[in-house]
Write a structure and sequence with these properties.
about 35% helix, seven-stranded mixed β-sheet, FAD/NAD(P)-binding domain, globular
């Protein structure tokens, strides 16, 4: 008799979501986590005494509110804050900043005021152009994905099919957007903002063919301008799911790394821990990425050779930095950003002056160089949630794309610190008191997430958001059903459909697949 009905490897938000669903259906479930905290790359940690920072993910950008009901989280103290403005993307003084408002009417009013009628028309036309993607995404989000090619073939007319092929496969993000913003000298901050989302979680630039899919995913998988921030930091979501899991009778063990999966006659039968203990289960779920799961824990000898080779070919290259800081005071923005000091608009500002600037960063990144002037997302979470910092003090985090993916030997720390200084410089140009306000800071790159969590290449997407790695091709072509070639081994993390971001969907969907097959 097995020790548990199910073992879930990894207590990230997806692992916890899967574990919670199974436990609520009466299964005995054990969740194993190598670190001493939950949430994985969606955790809130006290990096400095009295200050809480969201390490990894920081907001619910593609999260859908129905997941609160599906996971039964309403009674576990989770509170979502929806700021009036999601972000303010800015560039040089001659270009009007682009402020994203959560309320659509307010958004239209302010875009008209700041950017003109042609900008409203361009954004509306872009949204309309991408709607066929939204239709097929909505239809596939709830379970085992059908092949994308089949969904495209079933589109109602030739024009829609051709549009979907461009969005999902052939077009760059700029190919798509330029149709609606044809003047390269206008609306640079709007285009910079669109392109920064399009390259997030990819190894691409804004002009790279295939980046159109990421553009559509980021703007249509959730609500494009409706950022939701859990009160208490991103880890509050994971905490709520954990409480739901424990209330249902589940068990979690922290500081319990899994050494390998136990596989007998092609079936997963449990796990062996690093300390040598073995634990058996009727089904094992892994919330880790595919390479960590299949090559590190399962072993190639237990896999069909074609599948093993496909796993080895998954693309994970994703360079970035996070700078977590404590501040003695809020910096004040000057010049064309002075308005951001009012109404908490400056809680999240992003130096993304244009699509061309982002392309330059991409080209520097491809040469394995630190970008000369990196794009810089700078947010002050405690402005919206004072519980994150002591009274009168503040938290601040900067995120920046395109940190070199493979720095020369011995150069990682030097490159890390250089890029951090350049990212801070990008903000300080428009907030002169910024650097003087910093009390403490820590700089993390993809190497931190690789070493801390065992994430392949530190890729927060668990497999890049590329056309060849989405839908039924996620994690590898032909294996998009959460089930795997190893019987009773199920994938339940962001390596699965529908993809990256804090969504809980992969975990929920995987648990439903297990329940469909379940026999006591």
């Amino acid at each position: 008799m097995a020790d548990y009905d199910a073992i879930v490897v990894g207590a990230g938000h997806n692992g916890l979501a899967a574990a919670s669903v199974l436990a609520k259906r009466g299964l005995s479930v054990l969740c194993l986590e190598k670190t001493n905290w939950n949430g994985g790359q969606a955790a809130t940690k006290e990096l400095f005494e009295g200050y809480k920072h969201s390490v990894g993910a920081w907001a619910l950008l593609v999260f859908r509110r129905e997941m609160l009901e599906l996971l039964g989280l309403e009674k576990y103290g989770l509170e979502l804050i929806t700021p009036e403005t999601s972000y303010c993307s800015f560039g040089e003084p001659g270009d009007a900043p682009f402020v994203a408002y959560s309320d659509t009417a307010k958004m239209a009013e302010m875009v008209m005021k700041d950017h003109g009628l042609d900008a409203i028309q361009g954004l509306a036309a872009l949204s309309e152009y991408l709607q066929p993607f939204k239709v097929i995404f909505e239809g596939a989000i709830g379970g085992n994905p059908r092949p994308l090619e089949q969904l495209i073939a079933e589109a109602p007319d030739v024009e829609t099919r051709e549009r979907l092929i461009r969005i999902c496969y052939s077009a760059s993000a700029m190919d798509i957007v330029r149709q609606f913003f044809p003047d390269p000298e206008k609306h640079r901050c709007i285009l910079g903002s669109l392109m920064a989302s399009a390259i997030d979680g990819t190894h691409m630039g804004p002009y790279t063919p295939g980046s159109g899919l990421s553009l559509a995913y980021h703007y249509l998988a959730g609500d494009a301008y409706d950022f939701k921030v859990p009160r208490g930091g991103i880890g509050a979501l994971s905490n709520a799911i954990e409480r739901a899991f424990l209330d249902a009778g589940g068990e979690i063990r922290y500081r319990t790394p899994v050494k390998r999966l136990l596989i007998q006659d092609g079936k997963a039968t449990g796990v062996e821990l690093r300390d040598g203990e073995t634990i058996s289960a009727k089904v094992v779920l892994s919330s880790l990425d595919a390479r960590a799961t299949f090559l590190n824990l399962a072993g190639k000898e237990h896999l069909p050779s074609e599948f093993a080779h496909a796993v080895e070919e998954i693309q994970y290259t994703n360079g970035y930095i996070q700078i977590h800081m404590t501040l003695k005071e809020l910096p004040r923005f000057t010049g064309h950003l002075e308005f951001a000091n009012k109404d908490k608009i400056g809680w999240l500002v992003a130096y993304i002056p244009s699509a061309e600037h982002l392309q330059k960063n991409w080209e520097e990144y491809q040469r394995n160089e630190v970008p000369e002037t990196p794009v810089s997302y700078c947010y002050f979470p405690s402005v919206r949630d004072p519980s994150l910092a002591p009274e009168g003090r503040y938290t601040c985090t900067i995120f920046s794309h395109y940190f070199p993916a493979d720095p020369p030997p011995g150069k990682h720390n030097e490159y890390r610190d250089l890029m951090a200084e350049r990212a801070i410089d990008a903000i300080e140009r428009f907030a002169p008191s910024f650097r003087d306000a910093i009390i403490d800071k820590v700089v993390l790159t993809q190497e931190y997430f690789k070493k801390t969590f065992g994430v392949t290449a530190g890729d927060f997407a668990s497999g890049l958001l590329h056309p060849s790695q989405m839908w039924d091709k996620r994690p590898v072509p032909g294996s998009g059903s959460y089930r795997t070639p190893i019987e009773n081994l199920v994938m339940c993390g962001a390596a699965c459909h529908p993809g990256p971001g804090v969504t809980c969907r992969p975990g929920y969907n995987a648990a439903m697949e297990v329940l469909e097959d379940w026999q006591d």
